[in-house]
Amino acid sequence: MTRIGVVTFPGTLDDWDAARAVRLAGAEPVSLWHADADLHAVDAVVLPGGFSYGDYLRAGAISRFAPVMGSVVDAANSGLPVLGICNGFQVLTEAHLLPGSMIKNDHLRFVCREQVLSIENIDTAWTRDYTRDERITVPLKNQDGQYVADERTLDELEGEGRVVFRYSGVNPNGSRRGIAGITNAAGNVVGLMPHPEHAVEVGFGPDGAKGPRTGTDGLRVFTSVLHALVG
Amino acid sequence: MGRVVVDVMPKPEILDPQGKAVAGALPRLGFVQFTSVRQGKRFELTCEGPVTDEILAAAREAGEHVLSNPVIADVGAASAAEAARPDV
């Protein structure tokens, strides 16, 4: 069975939900500890959301120096699929696996809402089970969610098709060009601010077409990587 | 004991939401003299012995690699602080 590692840092909140999403997608979740550099032969890694190290210094800034991150960076550069969600996305930018950074929401308030995203790149390891320009709804909850990068970097991301998820309808945090998630050039490393792992099971997700809390649009992020690994 | 001060400020082209909020609050309290505010961070690094050129260089390097993220912030010059005050 495909083994997907889920990293826990001090202050991580969503590791259990991420592990649950991995299991519902049909893979075996493997807990990885921030202080252990051993990736335990996993086939992919998820950096989940939360407030690692209390967001001290900057969101994700201290986690980047955790022993496990040295191994994650090396493995990602060799093609290991890595997904960073929310705080995990912030860790990926601090580790220079993805460009840009996140600063405080432009309106300065914590935001928690069911957010519509459009999927603009379905060639990454984490989005191949979607269709291009598909609209999905997943929860979004963040304080430092405003994606920023210089204009040249933004043009490069757009030109190379590396904007994977874009906020649809509302830009909830002032992110440049409505960017919600991006990928590296190789397509194996993806980071996004919203939370697909909270929309994987009927009864617990956002409202969906079949009624309240029936939305499971996030599940295909996790099935995508299974198909990427066997394909 | 020596002390080095490193200032980290948001880049000018990055909108500083916190500074903007502070700028909005000042006139409400009667401080109408100020047209804008930028909010940064000040780090005080303490070392054994005096602040040498090597210590300053190390503080500058720490500023660029750890204390700031070059995408969103600039590091001011690292400078030796006046006589270190006792930590409380």
Describe this entry's structure for a reader.
The complex is a heterodimer of chains A (231) and B (88). Chain A has helices at 15-25, 67-77, 87-94, 151-159, 219-230; strands at residues 3-8, 28-33, 44-47, 82-85, 101-103, 111-119, 135-142, 146-148, 163-167, 179-183, 189-192. Chain A has 231 residues and is of the alpha/beta class. Chain A has one domain: Class I glutamine amidotransferase (GATase) domain (Rossmann fold, 3-Layer(aba) Sandwich). In chain A, the strands form 2 sheets. In chain A, strands 2-1-3-4-11-10-9-6-7 form a 9-stranded mixed sheet, with helices on both faces. A two-stranded antiparallel sheet of chain A has the order 5-8. The two termini of chain A are 14 Å apart. Chain B has a single domain, classed as Mth169, Chain: A (2-Layer Sandwich), CATH 3.30.1280.10. The model of chain B has no long low-confidence stretch (mean pLDDT 88). Chains A and B meet through loops of A and helix 1 of B.
Descriptive key words:
heterodimer, A: 231 residues, alpha/beta, Rossmann fold, two-stranded antiparallel sheet, 5 helices, 11 strands, B: 88 residues, alpha+beta, Mth169, Chain: A, 2 helices, 27% helix, 24% strand
Chain-wise SSE layout:
The complex is a heterodimer of chains A (231) and B (88).
Chain A: E1 3-8, H1 15-25, E2 28-33, E3 44-47, H2 67-77, E4 82-85, H3 87-94, E5 101-103, E6 111-119, E7 135-142, E8 146-148, H4 151-159, E9 163-167, E10 179-183, E11 189-192, H5 219-230
Parallel strand pairs in A: 1-2, 1-3, 3-4, 4-11
Antiparallel strand pairs in A: 5-8, 6-7, 6-9, 9-10, 10-11
Helix pairs in contact in A: 1-5
Chain B: E1 2-10, H1 17-25, E2 41-47, H2 53-67, E3 73-75, E4 79-80
Antiparallel strand pairs in B: 1-2, 1-3, 1-4
